[in-house]
Amino acid sequence: MNYKLFYAPGTASMAVHWMLIELAVPFEAIPVDISQGQQRDPEYLRLNPSGRVPTLIVDDVPYGETVALMMLLAERHAAAGLMPDTNSPDRAEWLQLTIYIANTLMPAMRDWLYAAKDGDPAGADAVKALAERRISSVWDNFETRLEAKGDHLLGERFGMVDMLAVMLMRWSRKMPCSAIDRPTLHQYATQVTRRPSYIDLCDREGLSGWPT
Ligand SMILES: N[C@@H](CCC(=O)N[C@@H](CS)C(=O)NCC(=O)O)C(=O)O
Description:
The protein has eight helices and four strands; from the N terminus they run βαβαββαααααα. By secondary structure, it is of the alpha+beta class. The chain folds into two domains: about 5-80, Glutaredoxin (3-Layer(aba) Sandwich); about 90-195, Up-down Bundle (Glutathione S-transferase Yfyf (Class Pi), Chain A, domain 2), CATH 1.20.1050.10.
């Protein structure tokens, strides 16, 4: 299996990068400087027509969309147990939570972070206020889950959804609805980010200072 990840530190590519490290599979990582607009270079647009990171080249074919890439990797490396097996009783809940994060939290994050750029700058505050409400409702959901289930969002076992959730929680660090202002989520982030794969990811992407 041959993987090449186009990434920008701390962005949506972070969870895919983390997953490749966690899986301990060989891959090549190629930085895309989104502050300089490299994601709109014609060469990059041929790989990812929406001009976004991440792009993952899988056996010479480029694919986008963070959550789809994580699901694909979890499936291709099923022995690592980063998602419940097809026949597991936990499978439906995993699918529900994954799609909930992809459909609810990720668009709200994009709206908050890119309100003025993607939309009308004059309406940005209203967009951000709505996004904050949506993001907070997901933190409520995560809190309820962790209080009921223990260490991880789906129970005892660490998996793909935890990598996705922790990346998105990190994005909220400068928002009024910062996830780790909530003690249950702070404890969860602290414990999950102790994993050697996360520490390695931070070294490779030059990230520090969260969740502490
Ligand atoms: N739905 C896409 C969204 C990816 C996305 O929004 N990436 C951002 C970084 S977090 C990006 O590439 N921004 C550059 C831009 O929009 O120009 C995914 O999940 O992969």
